[in-house]
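Supplementary Text 2. Reproducibility record for the structural model of the 297-residue chain.

All settings were left at their defaults, and a single model was retained for analysis rather than an ensemble. We include the record here because the model underlies the residue-level annotations in Supplementary Table 4.
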Amino acid sequence: MNNQELISIIKNQHFKDGLNDTIIPSLKVFYSSRTTQKLPVIYEPALFVILQGEKIVFIDNKAIKYDSSSYLISSTFMPISGQITEACKDKPFLSLQITFTMKQILEAVEYFIIKPQKTNDTRLAISSYTISDNLFEPVSRFVSLLKTPNDITALAPLYLKEILYRLLISHNNIELKQLAYIEGNAYKISQAISFINENLFENISIEEIATNINMSVSSFHKHFKIITAISPLQFIKKQRLQKAKNLMLIENMDITGASYYVGYQSVSQFSREYSDYFGLNPSNDIKNFKQQLVEKS
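Retained model, structure tokens:
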């Protein structure tokens, strides 16, 4: 199956602008009929494949540009800024997001008897590579299940496992491979991120997180920043702000309720940090979001 056939399958689903869930577990589709400014988001562990259009992902001072000839791999939760640079109404931006968990990575390693490289080195958990036919083929089969919903339960897990296999045996994708060595520092940081996400709105200390994964505080700080490009405290703050944004825009929670829900004790501090991160205050963000809904209706 070629790229145009996949585009046809996606267009037949009649997705709306933004990130769309699908009937296939682990598959989401991002659709945009226009280019965008830089927008802060949290990427979850996933393979991103652009079918049409072009995008730039910004992490700290690094910019990663990719399109339909390449793919992006993010092996953990990553606060990034994304900008769609090529899209229009007649030729919208279309991107596949195939998510996976640490458990699924380790299951693929065991199933295919892959021997992880023993290393304590760590690297930034996101990068882009040229997409090969060996990877594009299982991705195509996975997405094609949208046409045969009765096959999803039986075949989707197998196709996802094959996709992870192709990523793990490639000469690339150290971002993913470093997590498969369960005694390594990258694996420990992934466990720390899981712990943070499970306790995101609790008053947890950096010492508590480091102890939980059996690392010293200094080593935890060092490897966490290498992998995510930010400090643990910045990571927690950005995760909380993204959650608050969803609560206000998607679930219609008011500003005070959202700020307290995600762990802020001061609404003014919440509004200040929200403005710094998203570029506008919560009130204006809510207003703009509602205006966009009116314009689309």
